[in-house]
Amino acid sequence: MSEEKSATTTSIARVSVKVPPFWRENPDIWFSQMESQFVLAGFTAEITKFHHVFSALQPEELGIVGDIILSLPAVKPYTALRTRLCSQYAESEEQRLRGLISGKQLGDRKPSRLLLEIRSMADSRISEELLKSLFIQRLPTHVQQILVISNYQLNKLAEISDGIWQLQALPL
């Protein structure tokens, strides 16, 4: 009888989620990564998601969400945690634009890589023309002089810039 009972009892194994350290510089991307982990693990309950995120937080983040942790919301605790962390760490549109204007330089990257980084920082409301201007400003002067007279789309400009960049890297 006990064999029959154990045979019909459903066994539930624990599913683990790989929780990366919280990414203060880009909490939206970090939460998107966590959402992907939750989908793969089949987690849908807010409280389960809450506890997984909670386990990844460091003391600084815990201080920001301490009130949520100490008096756990009965409804949507994960959403409350996510909203607070994103509002505290996500850059405002103005900060993001300032970063685009002052922060990114070409360095030893291909121009198309620089464009990808600028686009990832840019808000969807920033026009393609502004992105084009910001991108061209970050390129070496001789490349700017070639690109500024063209009417190509931004992706094509990045492709042309990559070609110029590769040519200048070739030994003579």
Automatic annotation (TrEMBL):
Pfam families associated with the record: DUF7041 (PF23055)
Ranges for domain DUF7041: 19-101
InterPro entries tied to this protein: DUF7041
Superkingdom of this protein's organism: Eukaryota
UniProt name for this protein: Retrovirus-related Pol polyprotein from transposon 297
Organism lineage: Eukaryota, Metazoa, Ecdysozoa, Arthropoda, Chelicerata
